[in-house]
Amino acid sequence: MKLWWRIVLPVILVAGVVFVIVVFSSATDKDPEEVVVVKHTEYRSPFIPDSVAFAGEWLPLNRFDVKEALDRELLSNAYFHSQTMRYIKLAPRYFSIIEPILKEKGVPEDFKYLAVAESGLNPRAVSPAGAVGFWQFLRGTAQEYGLVINSEVDERYHVEKATYAACDYLLKAYRKYQSWTMVAAAYNAGPTGMARQILRQKSESYFDLLLVEETGRYVFRIAALKLIMENPELYNFYISEDEKYPVITTRIVEVDGAVEDFADFAKEQGINYKLLKDFNPWLRQTYLKNPGAKKYVIEIPVLEKVES
């Protein structure tokens, strides 16, 4: 080793030791209140109650496969923060429409969470398979249950009318299965797919059937959404009432003829075209010819007047 390096190296080592001592001393000499404590985010398994019911039917959580399936959906939704927070915020606006209809038709209220699973409470939702709206109806099924679909109108986008149609579909399925969990599964898989698996596996219990992944997870996803949305703070969602999206008051305008231009129509009603379509997404064109003179009910949001 060269002589100069033998001299410099000890100096560097001593300087390093002194630096560490000085830094350590300055940190420990600080007032305890001035010390910054870095907290790490903790991720914990979501809470699973001892008993969970969907539409009055208890999930057999004593079975490991059932409990783990529910845990999977709780993990997926409890930690998909932005999406689940939006569901919680949207719930008052849309549940206020569908809850009374479910009650009127005799469908368990828990099926409002099926709508969350289907469309994310988005009236304009369209699936890759062409299922449309809040309840994700395919064209043929929607028409079978009385929804109008033509070049100008598509009532699959009409939350109220589509909810009535969904109730009729669900009630028909219940008469067949006598089980609301099977009804929910059949809503996802379709009656033909469920019939095939029931015959093949010789079981009519959702929890005993081996189904395609989407349907096999479906009822557990609905149950998980119910648990989280009914008890958001248990899953670390802290959303105050004033942060939720309010129910917007609307007034009704009946139309039984043609509307040449909905942009002009909107201005006549004191709103803009965007708001008109937001509240009436079932109107699919910029006009309505309505050759059959059918009566349509158009919702107009009542806007608060801004003082100048």
UniProtKB/TrEMBL annotation:
The cross-references to Gene3D superfamilies, in alphabetical order and at most eight, read: 1.10.530.10
> Transmembrane helix as a keyword?
yes
CDD domains, per database record: MltD-like
Entry annotated with the keyword Transmembrane helix: yes
Source domain of life? Bacteria
Looking at the UniProt entry, the stretches that span the membrane are 7-27
Q: Start and end of every Transglycosylase SLT domain? A: 98-205
Note one Pfam family from the annotation: SLT
* Keywords from the named record: Membrane, Transmembrane, Transmembrane helix
Give the family from UniProt.
Answer: Belongs to the transglycosylase Slt family.
Protein name per its UniProtKB record: Transglycosylase SLT domain-containing protein
**Organism the protein comes from:** Maribellus comscasis
